[in-house]
Description:
Blueprint: H1 6-13, H2 24-27, E1 32-41, E2 46-51, E3 61-63, H3 70-82, E4 91-97, E5 106-116, H4 118-122, E6 131-137, H5 139-142, H6 148-163, E7 167-170, E8 173-174
Parallel strand pairs: 1-5, 4-7
Antiparallel strand pairs: 1-3, 2-6, 4-5, 7-8
Amino acid sequence: MTHPGFEDDVRAEGAPEREFHTGVAGRLPRKTVAGGALFRDEAGLILFLEPTYKPTLEIPGGNSEAEESPLRTCRREVREELGLDLPVGRALVVDWVPASGPWHDKIVFVFDGGVLDAATIARITPDPGEVRAFGFLPLADAADRLRPSMARRLAAAQLALESGEALYTEFGRPVHAPY
């Protein structure tokens, strides 16, 4: 779901800019984009998923599909992984992740999923193809089951919740102005 007026915004932008040098657009690097949600329970514990396809814990979310915004990605992945259409709030963190092995570098957005009450938690129906289990843990207790960059990214997201301001991070480490 795009915002109201999105199609009008696209039309108002006009025709795509022409290339000054033919073929330059095709030679530009491509980045992977992802969106995830930081959900908490009423005690402030973080919702973690145990994926079926990797050994580390994750938060609900995933990689964007073609022409999909990070927010739309997050909402779609939450719906797919948890079986619920939950609201997703403001951006907490925008994190750059360097390339690693076969994976391109990536821009990861962490959005505020808010606090889930007991009734909502009881309705979570994980997709068995993607999620082996889920649970709520303090970040410190989950840290040994997270990639170090994810632990740093989630710590930054918690800082953003406390401060009310989104953070830009690189590999999970906050970068402070001036850049």
